[in-house]
Amino acid sequence: MNAMELLPKKLLSRPSAQAVVLIAYALVTAASVHLLTKSVTAFLLLLASLLLLYYTSFSNRTKWAAGAALIFLVIPLATSGGPAYQSYMEVATQSGIYIAMALGLNIVVGFAGLLDLGFVAFFAIGAYTYGIFSTAQANHFIPGDLFPLSGSSFWLFIVIGGFMAALFGVLLGLPVLRVKGDYLAIVTLGFGEIIRIIFNNLEKPVNITNGAMGISSIAPPTAGGYAFTHPNQFYFIVMGLLVLIIFAVGRFEHSRLGRSWKAVRENEIAAQAMGIPLIRTKLTAFAIGASFSGMMGVVFAAKQTFIDPSSFTLLESTTILVMVVLGGMGSVPGVILGAALVTILNLQVLTEVTNWLNQLTLQGVLQVPSALSPSKMQRFIFGAILILMAVFRPNGLIASRNRRVDPPHLTAPAPKAVVSSAVSSGTIRGTKEGGMLR
Amino acid sequence: MEVILQTLPQVLIDGLALGAIYAVVALGYTMVYGILELINFAHGEVFMTGAFVGTTVLLVMESTGTTAGLPGWAAYLLILVTAMLFTGVLGVGIERVAYRPLRKAPKLISLISAIGVSFVLQDLVRFIAELTTGNYIVSGTTLFDKSLTVPASSAVSWLSDASLKTNTLVIIGVAIVLMIGLDLFVNRTKWGVAMRAVAQDRETAALMSINVNKVIVLTFFIGSALGGATGVLFAQQYGTIDPFIGFILGLKAFTAAVLGGIGNIRGAMFGGLAIGVLEMFASANLGLLTSGSFGAEYKDVFTFLILIFVLILKPEGLFGKALKEKV
C-alpha cells in the first residue's frame, strides 16, 4: 500500500479526526434537510449520522452524549420549519416504536433463542390496555361511570401496559415453555392469532374490545395542561422511552440473567447442568421482551387515537422478526439498524417508489400494473430478506459480539504472589494465549 | 342438546370432508419432519399453489373448450395430476434453495428461512393471480356439484337429514386412495424402506449406501405433491380461493400432525380426520353450548387450544413414541 492510501486510514483512526468528520457530516446533512425541504434522501443521510457515530472509537459515555444531542437537538431542529416536518417526525416516531419492539423480540429470539412468531400480541395488549381505559369503553364492564380516564394517566399507563404485556408473557410462557424450539414457534404463532381473534370478537357477551369496530377517540397524553397530539411531540416521548430501553437492554445483556439467556440459547441441557433454572430464565426473557412491546403499544394507541384488531396481524409479527434477523440476532446495534431500515423501507422507500412508478404510468413512459406496485409487495420483500439472510448471512448486518475481555482487568484480582511466580516461571503464559482470554 | 344431535349427520359429513383435506396436508408436514426434523412452514403455501394451479388449468381448459368432449372424471384427474406434478417440483425447488444450504445450521435459522419461503410464495401467487385476472381472489368451477340428501331421519328418528355434495365423496375417495398409496409406498417399497432408514438415522443410512439427498428430494416431492392434490380438492369443494388460504389451513394440518404424533404417517391421517370433525362440531355448536356468548368465529381458537393442550400434555402425540433428548 502506498502512502496516499494509508494516510486517510491513519487519520480516521484518531478520535479527533473522527469527531471532525462526524460533526461535518451531521452539519452538512442537517443543513441539506433544512434547505431541501422535502428530500427523503437528505433525511435518511442525517439519520445515518447515528450509524456513523456507532462506528467511531469514542468512549461509551461520549457516544451516548453525542447520540442524545443528535436525537434531541439536531434532528428535530434540522427538520422543523419545512413542510415535511410532521412526516419526518412520523417516520422517526414509528421507527422508534419498532426499534423498541425489535429490541424486545431480540431478547426472546436473539438472546434466549426462543422463536416467537406471535410477538405483536403483546403490542396489542399494551395498546388495548390504554385504549380501553382512556375511553368510555371500560364503562361497559366496570360499573360506576368512572371512565374515560384523562390523558394525564398516560404516563402511568406506560408502566401498566408494560406490566400487562409481561403478565401475558408469563401466562403464555408457563405452559408453553416446556415445548421445544420449532413447536414453540407454532404455539406462539397460534397465540398471536388467538389474541387477534379474541380482540376481534370480544364485543359479546361483555363488550370489552368493541370487536372489529375498534376503539376510537383515545385520549392523547397530557402533562400539566400540555397535550401531545402531533408526531413531533410524540417523537420526544418515543425517543425518551427508547433511550431508557436501550440502556436497560445493555444492562440486561451483560448481567447474570443475560448470560443465562445466552447459555440457554447455546445448549439447554448444558445450561441446566450448570445450575441455570431453565423455566425461570426463559420466562424472564418472555416477560421483559413483552414489556417493551406493551409499553410501545400504549404509545401507539395514544398516537393513533384509534386501534382495531387489523393493526395486529401476523404480518406485523413477521415484520418485527425480519428486523431482528436482518440486523443480527442477539446484536443490539444490529437490531436497532435493522428495525430502522425496515421501517423506513416500509414507510418511505416503498411509498416513494410506488408514487414514482404511478407517475411514470400516468406519463405513459412505462406500464406498471397495480398488482406489481411495490407498496403491496411487503410479503415478498420480507420473505426474500428472511431467506437471503438465513442462507448467506445468518449473523445479520452487524453480527453480535461477545464483550471483549480486558486482560489486566481479569488478572488483577488474582493473588499477587502466585501470578508473579507463575509468570516468571513461564507456566501461565500458555493458558493466557490459548485458553481463557483468546 | 337435541339440536346438537339433530345436526350431527351434517357435522360428520362436513367434518370428514375437511378432515380428509387436513389429513393429506398433515402427511406432508409429518413426512418432512420425520426426515429432516424441520417444520416445513411453506407446506401450507404449497397446498395453496396447488389449488391455484388446478383452478387455472381448469379455467384454461374451459375457455379453450377442451372440457366439452371430456368426461368430468377425466378433467378432474387431469387437473389433479398437473397440480401434483407442479407442486412436487415446487417442493423440490424449495428444498434445494432454502433448506439444503442450511441443513447443518442451527434449527432457528432453517425455521426463519422456511417462514421466508412461505411469505414469498404467498406474494408470488398473489401477483400472478392479480396480474392475470385483476383480482387475487379467484373463483373456479366445480366439476361435481350435484347435491345429494342423506336420509338420516329415516334411519334414526331424532336425526335430521344432511345434504352432501358429490364432490365431498370425491374428496374422501381421493384422500383415501392417496393415503393408502402412501402407506403402501412407505411400508412396502425399496424407496420407502430407504425413507424410513433416513428418518431413523441419517448418517447410518448414508453408510448403508442410501443416497440421502435423493431420499430427501423424493420426500419433498411426494409430500408437496400430496399437498398440491389437496389444494385441488379444496378448490373444488369450496369454490373460492385466495393466496392466504394456505396459512391457517397449514397451521391446522400441522396441529393434526402433532395430534397424531409427528413423524407418524398413520397418526397424521387420524389426527386430520379428528381435527376436521372437531372443528366442524365447534363451528356448528359453540354458539349453542355457550348460549350465544361465543359463536363460530372462535372455531380457530378452538383448534389452536387443542394444539396447545396436546403439546403440553402429550407432546409426542397420540401415536408417537416419546423421545429422550440425548446429550
From TrEMBL, chain A:
It holds the Pfam family BPD_transp_2. One of its GO terms (molecular function) is branched-chain amino acid transmembrane transporter activity. It is found in: Cell membrane. The chain crosses the membrane at residues 16-33, 40-58, 64-85, 97-115, 121-142, 154-177, 183-199, 234-252, 283-302, 322-347. Keywords: Cell membrane, Membrane, Transmembrane, Transmembrane helix. It is a multi-pass membrane protein. InterPro entries: ABC_transp_permease, LivM-like. One of its GO terms (cellular component) is plasma membrane. This is Putative branched-chain amino acid ABC transporter permease. The lineage of its organism: Bacteria, Bacillati, Bacillota, Bacilli, Bacillales.
From TrEMBL, chain B:
Keywords: Amino-acid transport, Cell inner membrane, Cell membrane, Membrane, Transmembrane, Transmembrane helix, Transport. Its main location: membrane. Belongs to the binding-protein-dependent transport system permease family. LivHM subfamily. GO terms for biological process: D-alanine transmembrane transport; L-alanine transport; L-isoleucine import across plasma membrane. This is Putative branched-chain amino acid ABC transporter permease. The keyword ATP-binding does not apply. It comes from Paenibacillus mucilaginosus 3016. It is found in: Cell membrane.
